[in-house]
Structure formats: structure tokens, C-alpha cells
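Reviewer 2 asked us to include a model.

Predict the structure of this chain.
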Amino acid sequence: MNKNIPNIITVFRFVLVVVFAIFFFSPLENGRMIAAGIFLLAEFSDALDGYLARKYQIVSDFGKIMDPLADKVMQIVVAVCVAVAEPSLIWVPIFLFAKEIVMVIGAANLLTKDTVVKANWAGKLASVIYFVVFTVIMLFKDISPAVKQLLCGTFVAFSILAFIIYGIDFIHMVKKKK
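Predicted model (C-alpha cells):
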């Protein structure tokens, strides 16, 4: 297996971010449906590159940094696009951006100590809920604003849970390094 395939897939996911935004705002009647399909493709390709990297033990410094970055860029762009279309949801990309800044600071701190906190079940569950929530919001425009807020609130609640678990892991890692 070519050792660059997972990294090529990761770069492809960055391209999908731009393509997603183009279709989300396109005047095409089914632009949002196409954008949701692109979002699905990005999520599938994320799972594929992770699977290939683990199965064939293809780990690179590029992949360690760029794979999660591609995920976060897509999540923030999706949230921003949805918030532009649905201004009452502007708090979601603000929340995501703030959470990611804190996570990046924590991760950078650990990297200086040559430590990496691995993804946990809560983070993966929050990502799945994010995907479902935003796909539903994109595909079903007629959902009431209250239901959209509730769906986003559910995602945020699971994100906070994941954040707390990562924080506990972070504290344990720091204590272990001392």
C-alpha cells in the first residue's frame, strides 16, 4: 500500500471543504442536498483514511496534525454556512471556534511534552451527533427554529461532555509527565 494514501485523502478533505461551501451557497435548487452529500463524503473519507492508517500502520507527523485539522475546518465551515443561512444558530460556530482554540492550546502544550491525547468515545460520539444534526438541518429546511436549536443544543451538550473527558485526560497526562 502506498504510504501517502491516507495523507492524500486528508488533503482531499480540505478540498471538499471549499466544494461544500460552494454548493451550500449555490443557486442550484438542490445545492444544499449536494452540500450534504459532500459533507457525507468528507466524513466517509475521514473514516477511510483513519482505517487505512491504522490497518497498515501508516502514521506520519503530517497526518497527526492535518487529519484532525481537516475535521475541524469542515465542522466549523459547515456550522458557519448553516449560521449564515439560519442566523439564530450563530452561537454554534462561535462555540465550536472557542472550544477548538482551547483544544489547540491544550494539544500544543502536550506536544511540547511529547504527549498526545488520543480520541475518546465521547469525542467520536459528539462528532457523529454533529454530523447527524447538521445533515438534518441542511436537508430539512422546514424544521422549526426551536427544533434546530434543540438539535444544536444536543450536539453542544455532547461536545461539552467530550471536552470535560479530554480535560480530565489532559490533567492525567500532565501529572504523569511530572
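The chain has a mean pLDDT of 90. The radius of gyration is 17 Å. We have added this to the supplementary material.
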